[in-house]
Amino acid sequence: MGAKRTPGLFKRGKYWHIKKTVCGVIIRESTRTGSLDKAELYLSKRAQEVRNYIIFGERPKKIFAEGAVQYIEANKGKASLKDDLNHLKKLNAIIGHIELEKINNQTLKEFIEKRKTDGVKNKTINNALSIVRRILNLSATEWKNEDNTPWIANPSKITMLDKKDTKLPQPLTLENQKKLFNLLPQHLHDMCLFKVNTGTRDQEVCNLRWDWEFEIPELSTSVFIIPGEQVKNSDDRLVVLNKIAEKVINKRRNIHPEYVFTYKDKKLTKMNNTAWKNARKKASLEEVRIHDLKHTFGERLRANGVSHEDRQELLGHRASNITTHYSGASIQKLIDAANTVCETSIQQPIITLRRLQKKKT
């Protein structure tokens, strides 16, 4: 006969789960492993933690990696979860083993220096630090042990870095746009042309689906409504099509049944890929980022006299109730505004004032 399984373990799906009472405290959680040996070791560890707390008053020590898992579980529907996962992967490599109560500015120093050595800007590092700050705060307020005490007592204050090294927007002139786009493979060319004519974000373009398209017969056009879970501000986003964006969409029809933009019959995960970077280098436009295509759309709208309110709508910055607040006339107004940036009517050149230097006295 085989060895008996440790009482308190049961398998649900691919993972072993715990349901066991230790010293009057019910442990009910996933072991996050499909290995019975590892699950038994984890149960033994958790049981000992409970005994130590009940008998000796020792608070269970949670490490950052456990907080990262809890954070992911709590944010499954977050639009930017993919970015968070990337930050957490890099954080775990350096501080994953450290107890949450011991995480502070000093213990984060190695992570910050490593990211700076990799050439990462302070703004991006701050995005990771904000996740650390959020995990620490949740550990002290919402995440509880079996006895209803918080994971940690007092979260350390995490200091954000100075953003002075943040890159300024680099809106494209029409000449540089043509120069750059002509060096892109066709699928990426279509994506960039759509992005610079709609002001959509990278992931909004990559994830764009045909079932988000809605026909408007009275205007002889269609629009896309991107669900809130795919949008940075979590609000449903209306995307209207100017003449150029409409041509791109019509060109992409019947290529893939589900996604608008694909390569070799697969959905793309990002636009800032090797093909984009190589084209940017060949065009001597290495300072231009994918996100600058959104800035370019906004700058062109402003250069052509589009109102601030309409620019906010077109760029997806202004929350609106799509089902009740958009009439045919208001959509037509937005389409007309978006058409002002088409190649036949764009005003050149676009001049961006980078910084006003104060005169020395």
Give an account of the 3D structure.
This protein has 361 residues and is mainly alpha-helical. It has three domains: 9-56, no CATH class; 64-141; 174-339, hpI Integrase, Chain A. It is 43% helix and 10% strand. It has 14 helices and eight strands. The strands form three sheets. Strands 1-2-3 form a three-stranded antiparallel β-sheet, covered by helices on one side. Strand 7 and strand 8 form a beta hairpin. Helix 11 runs antiparallel to helix 12 (308-315). The longest helix is centred in the first third of the chain and has 21 residues, at 36-56. The protein starts with 8 loop residues before the first strand and ends in a 22-residue tail after the last helix.
Entry summary:
With 361 residues, the chain is mostly helical. The chain has 14 helices and 8 strands.
Q: Quaternary arrangement of the chains shown?
A: single chain
SSE succession: EEEHHHHHHHHEEEHEEHHHHH
> How many separate domains make up the residues?
3
Q: Determine the fraction of residues in helical runs and give it as a percent range.
A: 40-55%
The count of helical stretches stands at 14
What best-fitting shape do the alpha-carbon axes yield? elongated
Mean pLDDT: 86
Q: CATH architecture of the largest domain, please?
A: Orthogonal Bundle
Fourth CATH level, the homologous superfamily of the largest domain: Intergrase catalytic core
Which fold does the CATH topology of the largest domain refer to? hpI Integrase, Chain A
Order of strands side by side in the largest beta sheet? Answer: 1-2-3
Tell me the structural class.
Answer: mainly alpha
User: Largest sheet, described in full?
Assistant: 3 strands, antiparallel
Query: C-alpha Rg, in Å?
Result: 26 Å
Strand percentage, roughly? 5-15%
CATH class of the largest domain: Mainly Alpha
Rounded to the nearest angstrom, the distance between the terminal CA atoms is 91 Å
